[in-house]
Design brief:
The complex is a heterotetramer. Chain A is mainly α. Chain A has helices at about 5-20, 25-65, 70-85, 95-115, 115-130, 135-150, 150-155, 165-175, 180-205. Chain A has two domains: about 5-90 and about 205-210, no CATH class; about 130-200, no CATH class. The longest helix of chain A is centred in the first third of the chain and has 38 residues, at about 25-65. In chain C, α3 (about 80-90) packs across α4 (about 100-135). Chain C has six helices and no strands. By secondary structure, chain C is mainly alpha-helical. Chain C folds into two domains: about 1-95, no CATH class; about 135-210. In chain D, α5 (about 100-115) links the parallel β2 (about 90-95) and β3 (about 120-125). Chain D has a six-stranded parallel sheet with strand order 3-2-1-4-5-6, with helices on both faces. Classes of the chains: A mainly alpha, B alpha/beta, C mainly alpha, D alpha/beta. The interface between A and D is medium-sized, with 30 and 33 residues.
Chain lengths: ~210, ~400, ~210, ~280
């Protein structure tokens, strides 16, 4: 029973949502819309599970005085402060402490982490773009042409040549044809994978995500 | 609800804009104010009524029956005759006896309107009048009309047809596989690498890091990842190698807990399961990436497995992992991130390989049958593309148009 | 003054993250743990205010009293109880004996989205692509696209050995994949550097006012 | 260890350092590497050039968020400077909830530099939610969507907005966006009202916008930092765009050199290894 009920629910809900796509009848689409909203609420409610896990892991770390337990205090304190400012006695409006902490701590930290990619993309290119085989050669040549074609210096290199020999034109051509053809192929194949997996989920063949029997 | 609401908003915006256009037309004479007032004769003559009005169900067999399409002929005074039609009033009513309410004010020169958000299937009476700013013409009516409530959207027939073909293929091959037919599945290089990587981590006495992406659990890549996780967890349980699973979504975290616990139980190592190793880090993309980088440098996993949906954090993780000296295997169907995994990891499962991997690992006939079905669907797709190209070349476009559903 | 303090905090955090490029260090560890904590608090609060409060709490506690419909606009306040209940069921995981009930919510969620995903994927990634790729083979570029697509699809055949004609197509597919990967890699460099320029500009201009 | 092996084993932190220097140096010493202007940028520049001074205003929709600011803000500055230089009136608005402060600061900075006066030369309408409805509504009557400017002054009391009712009195709209807002302007202002629209988008998005150029739905396009740099060249006022392009060019070339160096080292080391093996045998 513990397994059958969720599987039956999955089947019914999945089938209904599948059918919704083809049925313009208002009663079906209204119900489907309602259920989609339920999904967002389930996800929103789940955040508490995540935060619970976070607290548990860091609390144990502090209690056992494991390596770096001091940093765990940072995490828990930062979270508590955010909750305090955003709680029922605080406000999340523009200009509030909650908003300030978000804008001046989370935003710069996240965008700086993001910008680390500029360094990593260079180091990855250095060590990985090696002419080990013909295929690797193609990867390398395509990357170099596109990189050159996107900056002014690259444009200057081939300025005098006829249009169809300039780097910007080559870049554009590579992006529009071989690149697009390959990506369409990957997407099409992956789409079949998604659909097969979706079917298996609805039919209850794929159920690893539900975990164990007990 | 949200979509209905948005449609309504858009419709309201269109209606306001048309209304405004009508008002603008009306306001145009104001510019001529320089003409002495007494020269303008007071308009007491109503414009001639518009010509025949027709109403019919919009998108006859394709929608919920809540839209009606109207066409009329211009009033003889619109752009000709006395040339003073400023616009039209469209009236709608639920009964023949009253004109009802004005549903739209339309600018002169317009002969077409779609009335939306009606009660599906209900009968409506429409009438239209022309007005010149002061006077309104006689009304022109038409036969009552009702939207047809449809149960099937015919413009999506091609989608349903191919979907049924695909499901059919998957189910047939699954049955064949269950009956015991031997199915060949080609080697997927990245998969063997997973086992080697876990093996090496065991030899070195260091943990295995498994990142199930930052997709939500409704992302099929995440589900595929959980299937692969179950397999990986069984190996680590057998070898008693610690398995760290950082997640960016709370639901994925709890599903991962279940999957790993179950795997440890199945191999008879329930005590080796450490709940502290399945961690929720952060919903924020780069906070998550930063924290995973921290794990790589401090807990020094010898094998990093990235399976699932990744965005820009892919290279951030893979480069740090490389620097930390781990063997790395990635798998994703995110085309924009594949280039980075391919360059920075030792092996990468690309696109469909990620989905195929779960079938391959389990060696369950049911799942292998699905793979075979997918392959045949590729044959069907290729055949349709080639056939379409040939027919297109010969000038028959109807066939290809059947596949243009938007 | 307030702005300066906050900008300085932002700048210190920015530098702490960059220090990671040299090696893992206390500054980075602090920044990393801080952002995890801040974002946990942030999402907890935002999810509550954006989803739970308008769609569950308010309808159940207020709509019942006869106020105007809010939230999804369905009007029936008891409908809001269902997602509320599904959300609560997730928390049964905290109580091992009834933990299995959490699967009901998960089943609805995953099943629903699996069903929801199939048809649009079929439409956008298969049907529309057939329409878009069935090009008359009258120009070099059209031939290139069709061959590239067929080759890539051939590479993804799993249940046949890549030999003979399939092998030829699969090899072609790999060629296209490699060119595509290289080009995408090169194409992305620019936007990543733009991000870095943005951060450096924050440090040099907004914080230090050097340039 | 010979030179090749040393190169292969190079500490990647040297690469990081090089990238860091390449980004920082142009801030202080702009190289001013030549930037070639491409037709889409030229066309947008011409479109702004065609607007009559002190007459019907340019509508600039600054729709970017902090994440895409580095790429798009230089565009906003260049376009504003160009317009103000020619005494063209400018109306600024935003469709992005996080764009309010960004739009305001760019506008005020440019206006102050060029000595423009609020109300007579430019004005700021602020943010309105509902992208497509806002754009459609403005086609009918701007005052119904934005009854007052961002600071609470009714539009009717702003001198430069006198006689500006809807798109009929706006010769050009430019949207700067890192999301679908630029497309929304094409669909809801260009299509139904025939409004002339130009756009500035991130480098990654630019490819998706080329079709709109060839179909004349866009009068001109700025793609990423490069687009901003080209515009700066056209108005002969180099700033963050050109500076950024210096960094971009240097780093792109640097990465290419690194790739070559990596390969030379790789083959050098491999050859040596083979020689050693041969000697050992």
């Amino acid at each position: 029973m513990r397994r059958e009920i969720p599987l039956a629910i999955t089947f019914l809900v999945g089938l209904f949502m599948l059918v919704d796509f083809f049925v313009p009848h208002h009663s079906v689409s209204a119900a489907a819309e309602e259920m989609k909203q339920w999904g967002t609420i389930v996800i929103a409610a789940s955040i508490l599970l995540g935060v619970g896990n976070l607290i548990r892991v860091h609390y144990r770390k502090i209690r056992r005085k494991q390596d770096g337990w001091g940093y765990s205090i940072t995490t828990l304190v930062a979270m508590s402060v955010m909750l305090y400012f955003g709680g029922p006695w605080g406000t999340i409006a523009e200009g509030s402490a909650f908003n300030w902490m978000f804008l001046n701590m989370q935003v710069p930290l996240q965008s700086t982490m993001f910008s680390l990619l500029a360094f990593f993309i260079a180091s990855a290119a250095y060590r990985a773009f090696r002419l080990r085989s013909a295929e690797a050669g193609l990867l390398l040549v395509a990357a170099i042409i596109v990189m050159l074609g996107r900056v002014p210096l690259g444009q200057l290199l081939t300025r005098g040549l006829p249009e169809k020999a300039t780097l910007p034109w080559l870049t554009e051509t590579i992006m529009t044809y071989p690149n697009m053809a390959a990506f369409r192929g990957i997407l099409m194949g992956a789409a079949l994978g998604v659909m097969a997996m979706g079917l298996r989920i609805i039919l209850g063949i794929e159920r690893s995500y539900l975990g164990g029997e007990k | 609800m949200k979509r209905t609401w948005l449609t309504f908003l858009a419709a309201a915006a269109v209606a306001t804009s048309l209304l405004g256009a009508a008002v603008a037309q009306e306001a145009a004479p104001v510019v001529e104010e320089e003409v002495p007032r007494e020269d303008v004769p007071l308009d007491t003559v109503a414009p001639a009524a518009p010509g025949a009005l027709t109403a019919r169900d919009y998108l006859d067999s394709n929608d919920a029956g809540d839209k009606i399409e109207l066409d009329w002929e211009l009033s003889p005074d619109d752009g000709a005759g006395s040339c003073d039609v400023a616009g039209y009033f469209l009236w709608r009513s639920r009964s023949a006896s009253s004109p009802g309410e004005i549903v739209a004010e339309l600018p002169s020169g317009q002969t077409h309107y779609v009335d939306r958000n009606l009660e599906p299937g209900a009968e409506y009476f429409y009438s239209i009048t022309a007005f010149d700013g002061t006077n309104e013409s006689a009304a022109v009516t038409c036969a009552p009309v009702a939207g047809r409530v449809n149960l099937f959207q015919t413009s999506r027939a091609s989608i349903l047809a191919l979907m049924l073909v695909f499901f059919g293929l998957v189910l047939v091959f699954t049955k064949l596989a269950e009956r015991g037919d031997e199915l060949f599945v080609r080697r997927i290089p990245g998969l063997n690498a997973i086992e080697e990587a876990v093996g090496r981590a065991t030899e070195m006495g260091r943990p295995v890091l498994y990142v199930p992406g930052i997709g939500e659990i409704d992302n099929i890549m995440t589900i595929a990842s959980l299937t692969i996780l179950s397999h990986v967890a069984k190996i680590t349980a057998r070898y008693e190698t610690p398995l760290i699973v950082p997640t960016a979504r709370a639901v994925v975290m709890s599903a991962a807990e279940e999957v790993v616990k179950q795997a440890y139980t199945e191999v008879g190592q329930p005590d080796a399961y450490n709940p502290d190793n399945i961690r929720y880090l952060s919903d924020a993309q780069f906070a998550f990436a930063g924290a995973v980088n921290g794990i790589m440098l401090r807990e020094k996993p010898a094998a990093n497995l990235y399976m699932g949906a990744f965005w820009a954090e892919s290279l951030l993780l893979a480069e740090t992992g490389f620097e930390a000296g781990a063997i790395q295997v990635a798998g994703t169907a995110m085309v924009s991130q594949l280039p980075f995994f391919v360059t920075a990891c030792d092996f990468t499962l690309m696109g469909e390989e990620l989905y195929a991997a779960s079938a391959y690992l389990s060696r369950e006939p049911k799942l292998l049958g699905g793979l075979k079905g997918s392959d045949w669907m590729k044959v069907v797709t290729i055949a349709l593309v080639v056939l379409g190209a040939v027919l297109n070349f010969m000038g028959f476009e109807t066939f290809v148009n059947w596949f243009r559903t938007q | 003054m307030g702005t300066l303090i906050w900008t300085t905090i932002g700048a210190i955090l920015t530098l702490s993250v960059y220090s990671f490029l040299y090696k893992d260090n206390p500054f980075y560890k602090f920044a990393e743990h801080l952002v995890v904590g801040v974002s946990a608090g942030y999402y907890l609060v935002i999810y509550y205010y954006n989803f739970i409060d308008p769609n569950v709490v308010t309808p159940v506690f207020q709509l019942r009293l006869g106020d105007q419909p809010i939230g999804f606009g369905s009007g029936a306040w008891w409908l809001a109880l269902i997602p509320g209940l599904l959300g609560l069921l997730l928390y049964t995981r905290f109580f091992p004996k009834v933990a299995w009930v959490a699967r009901w919510s998960l089943g609805i969620y995953v099943g629903g989205y699996a069903g929801l995903g199939i048809s649009p994927v079929m439409q956008a990634r298969v049907i529309e692509q057939i329409g878009a790729n069935a090009l008359p083979l009258t120009s070099v570029t059209n031939v290139l696209i069709v061959i590239g697509l067929l080759g890539t699809l051939a590479y993804f055949f799993f249940s046949m050995k890549h030999r003979g004609i399939l092998g030829v197509f699969a090899r072609t597919g790999i060629v296209f994949l490699m060119v595509g990967f290289g080009a995408s890699f090169g194409y992305t460099v620019m936007s990543r550097i733009s991000l870095l320029i943005g951060r450096v500009s924050f440090l040099l201009h907004d914080w230090l006012h050097l340039v | 260890m010979n030179v090749f092996e040393k190169m292969l084993a190079i500490d990647r932190r040297w690469i990081f350092l090089a990238i860091g220097i390449a980004v920082i140096v142009p801030f202080f010493f702009p190289l001013g590497l030549p930037v070639v202007v491409t037709p889409p940028v030229e066309h947008l520049h011409e479109a702004v050039d065609r607007i009559h001074p002190n007459d019907a205003p340019l509508l600039l929709s600054i729709d970017y968020a902090p994440a895409t600011l580095p790429e798009l803000e230089p565009m906003a500055m260049a376009i504003l400077r160009h317009a103000f230089e020619r005494d063209v009136n400018v109306v600024v608005m935003t469709l992005h909830p996080a764009g309010y402060g960004l739009a305001e600061s760019a506008l005020l900075q440019a206006a102050e530099e060029m000595g423009q006066e609020y109300g007579t030369d430019f004005c700021f309408l602020g943010f309105q939610p509902g992208t497509s409805a806002v754009i459609l509504g403005m086609g009918v009557n701007i005052a119904t969507v934005f009854p007052e400017d961002a600071y609470g002054t009714p539009l009717s009391e702003i001198p430069m907005m006198d006689g500006v009712r809807n798109y009929d009195e706006i010769p050009l709209v430019i949207s700067l966006a890192g999301w679908s807002a630029a497309e929304a302007w094409i669909y809801y202002a260009r299509q139904p009202f025939g409004q002339t629209v130009g756009a500035g988008v991130t480098a990654v998005m630019a490819t998706d916008f080329y079709p709109y150029l060839s179909s004349n739905q866009l009068v001109g396009l700025l793609g990423g930092m490069r687009g901003a740099a080209e515009y700066e060249v056209m108005i002969d006022r180099m700033d963050k765009g050109v500076q950024g392009m210096d960094s971009q060019s240097i780093i792109h070339i640097m990465i290419i050199i690194l790739i070559f160096a990596g390969n030379i080292a790789y083959f050098g080391a491999r050859r040596r290894k083979k020689q050693e093996e041969a000697e050992a045998a």
